């Protein structure tokens, strides 16, 4: 009887367990593996069934399963992630809002979760501001098009600490003016 009761509890747990909603992005340096310009969504990759049948593509199969969302890999942000939960309290958007891998908002979300090294981010009172500025940066293609003070800028920023997307408080980033409570009041870019 006791074993039957434990089996009942296990079945109840498994049937009530819900998959946590998440968003996925393909491995962001996929070009290093496929320098010919292909990507996870190219449509030229074999299906999972074809990969399973063709053992000669073991290296490609391993890569796709690890790095491509459509094959179960990639980087993921879950709705129960501490940074996302903190961000949600400010923006009120569900995790499903961030599905588009090309959107500035998804890039900003993944930057916050995977790359931002600002201390105490999951408790940060201005995480909505930080997210908005990161979305602005990605929306203007900051990694590629900013002449100065972007993460990959080719010219020197007037102060290294002023580079956007750094681990500094965002009021220290270039072109921003803030009030005494560290809320951004103005973005003043020369061009």
Features of the shown structure:
191 residues; mainly alpha; two-stranded antiparallel ribbon; 37% helix; 8% strand; globular; disordered N terminus
Order of helices and strands: HEHHEHHHHEE
The helix tally amounts to 7
What is the global morphology? globular
**Mean pLDDT, all residues:** 81
Give the CA-CA distance, first to last residue.
76 Å
Write down how many β-strands occur, each being a DSSP E stretch of 2 or more residues: 4
Order of adjacent strands in the largest pleated sheet = 1-2
- Secondary-structure-derived class: mainly alpha
Please estimate the helix content. 25-40%
Low-confidence stretches: 1-17
Tell me about the biggest sheet? 2 strands, antiparallel
Q: State which percent range the strand residues make up.
A: 5-15%
The rounded Rg comes to 21 Å
């Amino acid at each position: 009887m006791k074993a039957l009761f434990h089996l009942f509890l296990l079945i109840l747990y498994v049937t009530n367990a819900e998959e946590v909603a998440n968003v996925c992005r393909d491995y962001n340096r996929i070009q290093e593996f496929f320098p010919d310009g292909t990507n996870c969504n190219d449509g030229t990759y074999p299906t999972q069934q074809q990969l399973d049948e063709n053992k000669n593509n073991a290296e490609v199969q391993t890569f796709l399963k690890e790095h491509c969302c459509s094959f179960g890999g990639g980087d993921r942000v879950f709705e129960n992630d501490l940074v996302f939960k903190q961000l949600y309290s400010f923006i009120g958007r569900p995790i499903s809002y961030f599905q588009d891998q090309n959107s500035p908002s998804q890039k900003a979300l993944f930057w916050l979760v995977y790359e931002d090294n600002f201390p105490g981010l999951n408790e940060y009172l201005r995480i909505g501001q930080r997210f908005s500025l990161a979305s602005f940066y990605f929306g203007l293609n900051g990694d590629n098009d900013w002449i100065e003070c972007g993460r990959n800028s080719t010219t020197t920023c007037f102060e290294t600490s002023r580079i956007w997307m750094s681990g500094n408080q965002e009021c220290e980033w270039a072109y921003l003016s803030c009030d005494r409570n560290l809320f951004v009041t103005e973005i003043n870019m020369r061009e």
